[in-house]
């Protein structure tokens, strides 16, 4: 190529894709070139890096764009270009807008993973941190600085300690209170990185307060911000993991004092001194109260908290509920302790199982998924969001228990319903805990049953082969039922109004089908009848066997003849005619849409044709749905297989068959 174009020193030139990427063509990526791609001849990466190196201040903008190319980046790094960039930053020289290009080039070069993050000096870290700590800083510079700090923290434990000395959560909060969504996203990413790399002893700091302003940002939340909020939510809830995985020590007096506190608040009793009454009497009193509190082990309820998960986290939630929602706590305990044993909702057992369930729903203890964007805004609106979440849920559990009229045998069933209620409410992404509570109020047990039935029918209609086959089998029966109803209505008859082309006159005529479905009887009336008109009083007859067709709408003869009626859309929709013999018609205008559908369906049924009215479709959907629900009633909570079970092989002999002879 160089020879054809008379280019000397071919190593000074290279091909580049002429698009937004400007990637160089190399032996590694040459096979990725698509047909029709436009290539440009340009200086080689080596020559370009030389040019940028010696004319740095003039070509920083081009450098920022070119650094995305791995081939260029390799050449630039080989020439110690990274050191030149860091020296410019460390020097602190104020070179205006070019600083953002410098930091952009640095970020792009480091993203290739060629250079280790551990190679940077404390001076460089301090300089980058100073850009973040400044109250007024160029948006592009701030964004790149936050990205650099995040990468430092995530890629090096040593750099985490150095960055943590320069940046605090409090210094990052002002960036969350602005309106720039990119800055907010990068700030949350830095908070997440600092939190993720923090030593265990420092992870107990609550971070929810830092996020309230992000959620209330006037800008819509994009996927990247949603992911960072999701990560922050998971990391925050992982603070609960230690308590969730901590067993209660039945001999630990401090832990046992919490149970005593629950008893004291519920029954308004003070801890009796050791010399008050006999030991047996006090044990009996404690056992009675612990039973009322709903613990499994009435003698030593501390044993209930030795199961992990949820461990001590369940006891923490119970104590929070008792102290911060005291009225609701006392009402639930006393209300259940006054019921029959089999109908009481055990508060202690319910709290333990509910805490375990909430940890599963919120994935407490799990690492964040890389691609998940699922976060719940309400958890960023309260310092003790998980505990408040529990308080709302335990009251929901007690309410659902009463709605289901549950007994102790129904405990697991109630927990399943409560889980579904919570999951459905969370799916709606409530913005606050109050909104979450309001959504739960609309998800009563009765409503859950309706939703289940509706979803089940929709799912089975489209997915389950046995259900589709059942529908196909039932449909002809339903259609026959609708047909009989239509014919019965024709036998009862209908009064039709005669309409003149000149003006509307109060003249009527009546038509009805004979009980044997063979003849239409019709005739004029002086006035509108109060009930059915007997066959004897109707002078005219039309044998059904003579009917050739049923015509509707504008094709009817009486609609073509009468100009005024032809222009009346309402009348057009109610008009139909019966064609018999050669060119004879019996013309109708139904009193309303319902009668129109009944008569056109009935006449089509007499002729052996399909009933196609909207009324028939509506009846079919309603009756078919009801019939399907009735037939599937006995299969509640039983999974219907997608395919029929396999037919077993024939036995080797039939000796087991009883011979009646």
Automatic annotation (TrEMBL):
GO terms for molecular function: SH3 domain binding. Residues 254-426 form the ELMO domain. The keyword Glycoprotein does not apply. Pfam families: ELMO_ARM, ELMO_CED12, PH_12. GO terms for biological process: actin filament organization; apoptotic process; cell motility; phagocytosis. Keywords: Apoptosis, Phagocytosis, SH3-binding. Involved in cytoskeletal rearrangements required for phagocytosis of apoptotic cells and cell motility. Acts in association with DOCK1 and CRK. Was initially proposed to be required in complex with DOCK1 to activate Rac Rho small GTPases. May enhance the guanine nucleotide exchange factor (GEF) activity of DOCK1. This is Engulfment and cell motility 1.
């Amino acid at each position: 190529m160089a020879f054809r174009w008379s280019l000397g020193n071919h190593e000074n030139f290279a091909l580049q894709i002429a698009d937004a990427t400007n990637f160089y063509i190399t032996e590694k990526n040459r096979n990725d070139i698509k047909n029709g791609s436009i290539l440009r001849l340009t200086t080689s990466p080596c020559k370009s890096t030389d040019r940028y190196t010696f004319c740095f201040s003039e070509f920083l903008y081009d450098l920022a764009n070119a650094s995305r190319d791995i081939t260029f980046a390799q050449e630039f790094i080989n020439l110690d270009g990274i050191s030149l960039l860091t020296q410019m930053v460390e020097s602190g020289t104020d070179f205006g807008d070019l600083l953002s290009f410098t930091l952009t080039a640095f970020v792009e070069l480091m993203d290739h993973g060629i250079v280790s993050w551990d190679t940077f000096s404390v001076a460089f870290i301090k300089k980058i941190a100073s850009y973040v700590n400044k109250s007024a800083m160029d948006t592009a510079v701030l964004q790149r600085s936050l990205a650099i700090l995040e990468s430092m923290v995530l890629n090096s434990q040593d750099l985490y300690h150095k960055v943590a000395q320069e940046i605090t959560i409090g210094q990052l909060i002002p960036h969350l209170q602005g309106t720039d969504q990119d800055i907010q996203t990068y700030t949350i990413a830095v908070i997440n990185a600092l939190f993720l790399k923090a030593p265990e002893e420092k992870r107990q700091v609550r971070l929810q307060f830092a996020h309230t302003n992000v959620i209330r940002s006037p800008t819509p939340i994009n996927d990247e911000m949603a992911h960072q909020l999701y990560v922050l939510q998971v990391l925050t809830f992982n603070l609960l993991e230690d308590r969730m995985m901590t067993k209660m020590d039945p001999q630990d007096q401090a832990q046992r004092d919490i149970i005593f506190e629950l008893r004291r608040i519920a029954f308004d009793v003070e801890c009796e001194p050791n010399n008050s009454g006999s030991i047996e009497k006090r044990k009996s009193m404690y056992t009675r109260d612990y039973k009322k509190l709903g613990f499994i082990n009435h003698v030593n309820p501390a044993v209930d908290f030795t199961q992990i998960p949820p461990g001590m986290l369940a006891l923490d939630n119970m104590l929070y509920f008792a102290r911060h929602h005291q009225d609701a706590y006392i009402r639930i305990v006393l209300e259940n302790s006054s019921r029959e044993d089999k109908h009481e909702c055990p508060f202690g057992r319910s709290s333990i199982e509910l805490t375990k369930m909430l940890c599963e729903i919120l994935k407490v203890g799990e690492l964040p998924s890389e691609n998940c964007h699922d976060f719940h805004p309400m958890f960023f609106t309260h310092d003790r969001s998980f505990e408040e979440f529990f308080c709302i849920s335990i009251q929901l559990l007690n309410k659902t228990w009463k709605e289901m009229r549950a007994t102790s045998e129904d405990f697991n069933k109630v927990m399943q319903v409560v889980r579904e209620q919570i999951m459905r409410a969370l799916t709606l992404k409530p913005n606050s805990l109050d909104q979450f509570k309001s959504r739960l109020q609309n998800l009563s047990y009765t409503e859950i049953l309706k939703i289940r039935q509706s979803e089940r029918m929709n799912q089975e209609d489209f997915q389950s082969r046995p259900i589709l086959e059942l529908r196909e089998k039932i449909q002809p029966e339903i259609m026959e039922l609708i047909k009989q109803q239509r014919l019965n209505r024709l036998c009862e008859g209908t009064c039709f109004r005669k309409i003149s082309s000149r003006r509307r006159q109060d003249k009527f005529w009546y038509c009805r089908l004979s009980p044997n479905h063979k003849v239409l009887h019709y005739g004029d009336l002086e006035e509108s009848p109060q009930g059915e008109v007997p066959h004897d009083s109707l002078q005219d007859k039309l044998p059904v066997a003579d009917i050739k067709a049923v015509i509707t709408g504008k094709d009817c003869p009486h609609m073509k003849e009468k100009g005024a009626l032809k222009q009346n859309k309402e009348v057009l929709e109610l008009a139909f005619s019966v064609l018999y013999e050669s060119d004879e018609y019996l013309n109708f205008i139904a009193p309303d849409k319902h009668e129109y559908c009944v008569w056109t369906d009935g006449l089509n049924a007499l002729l052996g044709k399909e009933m196609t009215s909207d009324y028939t479709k509506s009846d079919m959907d309603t009756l078919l749905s009801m019939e399907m629900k009735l037939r599937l009633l006995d299969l509640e909570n039983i999974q219907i297989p997608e395919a029929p079970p396999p037919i077993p092989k024939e036995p080797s002999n039939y000796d087991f068959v009883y011979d009646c002879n």
